[in-house]
Amino acid sequence: MASTVSILERLGFRKASGVSEAGWWRTLIVGIVSLVYFTPVLFIIFTAFKPQTQALDVPPRLVPTTLFGLIPDKYAFVPTIENFGSVFSRVMTPGGSPEATGFDRFFFNSVAISSVSVFLALIIGTLAAYGFSRFPLKGNDTYLFIILTTRMLPAIVVIIPVILMFRVVGLSGSYVGITLLYTAFNLAFTIWMMKSFFDELSPDVEDAARIDGSSEPRVFFKVCLPQVVAGLAATFVFGLILTWNEFLFALLLTGPDTRTVPVAMNQAVSSGGRGTDWTLLASIETLFLIPVFLVTFFLQDHLLRGVTFGTVKR
Fold it and tell me: Can you tell me the distance from the alpha carbon of 18 to that of 24, in angstroms, rounded to the nearest whole number?
């Protein structure tokens, strides 16, 4: 075992994957559990590369033939990327010519609306969380509970008054309306998350900065904010996932030009009245996973520190 670890270290895998610290058995168990949880996602990704005629084969075809040449044909499939092209342009009617599906705009809408709303919620919520943490009001816990109740109600309960308000002020089907709505619903989560991070900070450094003549904004931006970068990253990722996957508000409050991908999927799963095109649906879902996966991948270090912040006392 020791020789194996030393060989891995010589090959540049020193401390890689934490195997030497966690142990091989723990690593193996974690790998198996991760594979079990990731199997449905992997199945969707493989389905996106299958021909439509092989999507529902039993037993399922799970292995690309280009990767493994020794797999029996009944378990293998020939990969194709035509399904991804069909997401953005395909024949809409029998015998017709290819037409644009509009999914390029739907993906842009999802990225723009989700990112802007989460950024706005992060800015406003971080300022509010700092205020609740450092300048508590009388009845501070009551105010925080009232803020939290905005996330307790199911979306279906508040959707009718929201629709009526949007119609009155003329925000139905607009980018501004759906962005402000997502911002409002992300605020409660952001405030509670960021307040927990500010509460973990020692106020001694802030007091020292004030004694040196720093103003309150400078204390916030130069002293406190750099210490909660991990919290900002974790809050951003969780808020982005919640907004990225939201369906009900997007279904009822967006228009043809502002529709997001989850809503647009409903119109894309039918293949000329012949039933659900599972390969097309899997292709859309695969593309839909990429932005969130990339954000989580590049922020994984901050995310790990963020979700474990305050759990280990130094």
Answer: 9
